[in-house]
Design goal:
heterodimer, B: alpha/beta, Rossmann fold, six-stranded mixed β-sheet, four-stranded antiparallel β-sheet, 10 strands, about 35% helix, about 25% strand
Chain lengths: ~260, ~260
């Protein structure tokens, strides 16, 4: 069974197996229920040819990227403050633990009312999806900084501000990084939900709208695009972590060391 | 409260004077307060190598943390050159037991050693001169650009030592710094610490539970009683010349006298 441990070979075999099962399913249930890999490819060609797929991917990607970056940028200082200042934590923690159980999709209608049907409401939704995960991870990281590190910095004459900047932030980076990376996943979930309900463009809109034409092959195209977009951004982000943040103990991609 | 005489000081500056010091984590107004340390009287002279010896849990680390300014005392006095100690200061540097939790893993050896200097906004070239000197002193020349995770336990403790020496503190507070090292590395580190102490004339307070280590290193050994409410019960002079020989008969004699304290 040594061939199983060969990474490349096993990955190829895995995907061949997935394709085979997919094809078998398509034969068994017919194209209305499960479009075959080939007809999905043809559907994709159609969507690429009239330019919709490229535009939709671009738009969904833009929304996720803006909302996710803004959400993270706001969440990091908030998380640091919650972790560093006891008074803030006492008030913020129960609130955080309440709100984080409300999924972003539950807010779609409210966000549409509050921020309008334009881009703002979608970006706000992604920010919401990002914010709490990053805040929670950041302040958990701050609380996990060893007392000895703070003490040694203090006895070497570092001010509280210097300790925050030169000890707490670098020590917390792996936690922040993990938070941001997890938030990427929830961002994709949130944006698809938002686009299904209130958008005229985007991958979520494609998936939702295809039901009107009974084009299950387009739905499959949308699903595959989502998976690839998530996979690629996660890989890129992991690579960034491994290369740039290596000294802070950030582990890039799970399973690869 | 009688204060021990300040006789025979080798270096009258940087004297640590402790009187009736006590520490409790409970409210001092409570009727039945549980003290970790109580009635601690001690004078550590400037330039002296002083050992705090005692079993685990006797409060010797607590005492060290109070001297460092990390932990607030519940009562009594703690003065360095007649100034009351309230908070951490650059005059006292601490070598922690665990290098992994006290070193900054995202900084290289050199950056760790220069940390305190960088916080003082010392220019880079001046920092480099100092870090070169102390990295050399602890025998880590050639390892400047390594990260702590690439070093052995003994080397990490050397980094800690270089890091505190770079700040040129008057007093070194060491909390069982060699406790986690293997016996051979520990032996080397002990010899080198004595060497560094003799070169730099620092006041050293060294916490340990190892009688042999105490006898190898210190000029005086303060024995802490078993807690709670422990204090420095006895202070032994150790006049043996450095470097000390574990096999010598006077070493053994002192060893058995101190050993007898812990057998009661």
């Amino acid at each position: 069974m040594k061939w199983l441990t060969n990474r490349k070979l096993s990955v190829i075999l895995l995907w061949a197996g997935v394709l085979a099962i997919w094809q078998l399913g398509a034969w068994a249930y017919g194209p209305e229920v499960i479009p075959s890999p080939w007809s999905t490819l043809l559907g994709a060609k159609e969507l690429v040819a009239d330019g919709t797929l490229g535009t939709y991917i671009g738009i969904s990607f833009f929304r996720v990227l803006v909302g996710w970056s803004l959400g993270s940028l706001i969440a990091i200082p908030v998380g640091l403050a919650i972790g560093k200042v006891n008074v803030i934590r006492i008030f913020a923690e129960p609130f955080l633990n309440f709100v984080r159980f409300i999924p972003p999709i539950a807010f779609i209608t409210l966000f549409l009312i509050w921020f309008g049907i334009g881009e703002q409401s979608k970006i706000a939704l992604i920010m919401y999806a990002t914010f709490f995960i990053v805040v929670l991870n950041t302040f958990t990281g701050v609380l996990a900084v060893e007392e000895d590190k703070l003490r040694s910095a203090r006895s070497m004459g570092a001010s509280e501000w210097q300790i925050l900047l030169h000890v707490i932030v670098p020590a917390t980076l792996p936690y922040i990084f993990t938070g941001i990376r997890l938030a990427m996943g929830t961002s994709y979930m949130a944006i698809i939900g938002a686009e299904m309900i209130a958008a005229n463009e985007g991958v979520g809109y494609l998936i939702w709208n295809s039901r009107l034409f009974f084009r299950t092959d387009w739905i499959f195209v949308g699903l595959l695009c989502l998976g690839s977009m998530g996979f690629l951004t996660d890989r890129l982000f992991g690579l960034f972590g491994r290369k740039v943040l290596y000294r802070y103990g950030v582990v890039g991609t799970t399973g690869q060391r | 409260m009688s204060v021990p005489e300040r006789s025979g000081l080798s270096n009258p500056a940087n004297t640590i004077r402790i009187e009736a010091l006590r520490k409790s984590y409970e409210e001092s107004s409570a009727a039945d307060v549980h003290y970790i340390i109580k009635d601690v009287d001690l004078v550590v002279k400037g330039g002296e190598f002083f050992i705090l010896l005692g079993p685990s849990g006797c409060g010797k680390s607590t005492l060290l943390n109070i001297i460092a300014g990390f932990v607030a005392k519940s009562g009594g006095r703690l003065q360095i050159d007649d100034v009351e100690v309230e908070r951490p200061g650059r005059d006292r540097a601490v070598v922690f037991q665990q290098a992994d939790s006290s070193l900054f893993p995202w900084l290289t050896v050199r950056e760790n050693v220069e940390f305190g200097l960088r916080m003082k906004r010392m220019p880079k070239s001046a920092r480099r001169t100092i870090s070169d000197r102390f990295i050399g002193m602890v025998g880590l020349a050639g390892h400047e650009n390594k990260f702590p995770r690439e070093l052995s336990g003994g080397m990490k403790q050397r980094v800690q030592l270089a890091r505190v020496l770079a700040g040129d503190p008057a007093i070194l507070l060491m909390d069982e710094p060699f406790g986690a090292l293997d016996a051979m590395t520990r032996r080397t580190m002990q010899k080198e610490l004595v060497q560094i102490w003799r070169e730099t004339h620092k006041t050293v307070i060294f916490v340990t539970h190892d009688i042999q280590e105490a006898l190898l290193l210190g000029q005086r050994i303060g024995i802490m009683s078993v807690g709670p409410s422990s204090n420095v019960a006895h202070v032994y002079d150790n006049p043996l010349p450095y470097p000390r020989d574990v096999g010598a008969s006077d070493f053994y004699e002192l060893y058995s006298r101190i050993q007898s304290h812990f057998e009661e």
